[in-house]
Amino acid sequence: MVIKVFLASSSGSTAIKKKQQDVVSFLDALKVDYTELDIACNEQNRMWMRQNVPEEKKPPNGIPLPPQIFNEESYCGDYETFFDAKEDNAVYTFLGLPPPPGSKEAEQADKGLNGTLEEHPDDAAEVPVEERNGGSHREEEEEEEEEGQAEGESGQADDEETEGDTAPAEEEDEEEAEGEEDHNEEAQAEEEEDQEREDLQSEEEEELQQLEEEEDAEEQEEDEAE
Asked: Within 13 Å of residue 202, how many CA atoms lie on the same side as its CB?
């Protein structure tokens, strides 16, 4: 299985360059074999990437931005999904690769399997005879202690009720402030993505214009030679 990372080597967007570098640096750190495919200098790579990114994963304008990651012909995801997998220690699962023994991802998988095998009622140790005989006495003492604690907690609860009257209003103010911050962050992220798409489109237009000018120059030279 070959991991394919589609990149734009001549991208003018700083954000795209940073995302591309994050992906390849992390894959290098994990010693994952991958192939870089440049969409800026190779039109076939560009068209293949656009055609094989699922429609539901494409942005509203229909042009996916690099980096885009594939396992052979299977689509893995873009930078955002790669970043989420990295935060969850699930990059190998994201890439469709088995995690190597000793990795954090393999340890998490082992813990998940072992957790279902830990509950065995037959493994419980038998209670010694001495503990069974003294059990009733300890239960009486525990009941007395619990009654005393309940009385103390009831008095404390009365004091806390007066303090808690202002808590809901403060919590609502905090939630509103957090909501405004989240909205501002989302709006800023959307603006950055829109700018990245515009930069990529302008780059593509410049490349096409340059190719057309080169072709015109070649045709002019041929006419002059004739």
From this structure: 9
